[in-house]
Specification:
2 domains; 38% strand; mainly beta; 3-stranded antiparallel β-sheet
């Protein structure tokens, strides 16, 4: 098998040293590759969040799985560092009920089946699993109920 070496000349292009045919923008290609690798690492990380008041601020730089202890009713939620445009980012909320608390303020742009946000299980200690996915950089979130009333 012939070896192909790839070099990075001063003009930042990759050229197959043997044929001279392959030409890609070095910084653009590897920058996008690094973004996807970073997204994949973050997507596997879980973060534990306990509510403290009516506003919930989620930072996806800390992970795409949210283990949420629902101690307060949430009327406003924001999501920082959404997935890049063109990347399907799925945020999973594992919501452990603190006792008849609700979430009425999902992130702006959240769309639910039948245009109705889920009603969370009211029993303390029970778990609901909700996902939000976005491919447009967090402008639109598609909401889905995965499981409810787990105990």
């Amino acid at each position: 098998m012939a070896k192909i070496s790839i070099t990075r000349p001063a003009d930042k292009q990759i050229i197959d040293a043997k044929t001279g045919r392959v030409r890609l923008e070095w910084d653009s290609f590897f920058g996008k590759l690094q973004d996807h690798v970073a997204d994949a690492k973050i997507a596997r990380t879980a973060q534990s969040v306990t509510t403290n008041g009516a506003t919930l601020d989620i930072d996806l730089a800390n992970g795409y799985t949210i283990d949420l202890a629902l101690a307060d009713t949430i009327t406003a939620m924001t999501i920082a560092h959404p997935p890049s445009i063109g990347v399907n980012g799925v945020v999973t909320f594992n919501i452990t009920q603190g006792g008849a608390k609700t979430i009425s303020g999902w992130p702006a742009g959240t769309i639910w089946p039948a245009a109705t946000a889920p009603t969370l299980t009211a029993t303390a200690g029970h778990v609901d699993i909700i996902t939000l996915s976005s491919t447009d950089g967090g402008t639109t979130w598609l909401g889905a109920i995965v499981r409810q009333d787990l105990h």
